[in-house]
Amino acid sequence: MFKSGHVSIWLARQKEKEILGECKLHADAIVATVAEMKKVFYSFCAGDLEGVKRGFEMVFKQERYADNLKREILDKLSRGPFHPITREEVVRVVLTADDVAANAKSAARKISASSSKDLPDEIKSGLRSLADMDVKIAEKMREAFMKLLEDPTAAIEVTNEVERMEEEIDDYRVALTENILKYGDKVKGITAWLMLKEAVENMENIADRSEDVADVIRSIAILG
User: Fold this and answer.
1) Which residues, at least 6 apart from 147, have a Cβ–Cβ distance to it below 8 Å?
2) Looking at the predicted structure, is the pLDDT value of residue 102 above 50?
3) CATH classification at residue 42
4) How many domains, in total, are found in the chain?
5) Burial of 139 (C-beta count, 10 Å sphere; 0-12/13-18/19+)
6) Fewer Cβ neighbours under 10 Å: the N or C end of the chain?
7) pLDDT number for residue 6
8) Is the pLDDT confidence value at 119 over 60?
9) Is residue 2 in a domain?
């Protein structure tokens, strides 16, 4: 995004400013999708089936909005007179970030197909905490992008925070998965258990893709 010139020069160009504005909206939509996913997990743990259903509808709506924004950005990039490097960098950020929302939708869908009946409290607590952590890392990813537009040097530090958060989430996910595997030895409904396990994997992917976005932003900030 910024290899072809300093941020201030890039922001001075009207077409580029419009694209960055849409990228900001896209980042907001992704964070909103993860936040709605969190609500689904909270409802699931509370045994609120209606809340799970309503929550997934909101996740689906937000993810579709983010996907539409992605399509609009890519369409404008394909038609506009952008420098090839500029176009490539924006595409990398947008497509990688879009995976965050896609995994949030998948996690919400899979947990909706599971069951919290007889689910140990420690697993419910773990699911809620992991959902909280996913929202925080998605917000930090968005912060890294905004810092990139203001101060590339500061953006590097924020991307480092994203990396640290991803490592914490990975460690937490490992412990949670161990509990889920132990629970699987006793559970009768194998399908519900598999959906639970795969939902947690999607939650881990949210963190992984957020770190991938941060890596792209760090590269831009260093080379810009």
Assistant:
1) 154, 155, 158
2) yes
3) 1.20.58.220
4) 1
5) middle
6) C
7) 45
8) yes
9) no
